[in-house]
Design brief:
about 90% helix; mainly alpha
Length: about 80
């Protein structure tokens, strides 16, 4: 009888551990799915930011050219005193 009781306890412990492991595996799968979604979202955001950076760099280059051309044309203008002096 005593041996039978130990076998039952061991059997139920194994069932409990199996259920517990299954719960942990499900939890890990849920966390992994969440992390995969987060990585995908961050990747899309990085791509969008890269496009925005490219756009801003081209606008910056265009503005630098405009400022440079304005500076060149400024040197060509004679220095005339304003009328209020």
């Amino acid at each position: 009888m005593y041996r039978y009781h130990i076998k039952n306890v061991a059997f139920y412990c194994m069932l409990w551990f199996d259920e517990r492991m299954e719960e942990q595996i499900i939890l890990m799968e849920m966390k992994l799915a969440y992390l995969e979604d987060t990585v995908k979202t961050l990747n899309e955001l990085i791509i969008q930011m890269g496009h925005k950076i490219d756009s801003l760099e081209s606008k910056k280059d265009m503005l630098q050219e405009q400022v440079s051309s304005l500076m060149d044309s400024r040197q060509e203008m004679p220095h005339i005193r304003p009328p209020h002096y």
